[in-house]
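Appendix B, Record 12. Input sequence as logged:
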Amino acid sequence: MSYKARVYVTLRASVLDPAGTALQKAVQEQMSKDIKSIRIGKFIEILLDSPDQTTAYQTIHHICEQFLANPVIEDFCFELDEIPS
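Logged structural output:
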């Protein structure tokens, strides 16, 4: 079976985001004072073949923990969907 994972990696709430703060100020100055906060993260899309959804989930979770997110400053979550043949 084939699967598609959409992974979202974000800074923990307690971690400062200078890039997000700079973007927020620029947007507020040029477009809208209504913007209260902008935080920048990463989006990763992964296609994989796996014998079942449980194995696919475990594989993606391991990849996130080992390669995509720094557990000290980042959180991650992902969505996993089966791709029809």
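The chain is about 35% helix and 35% strand.
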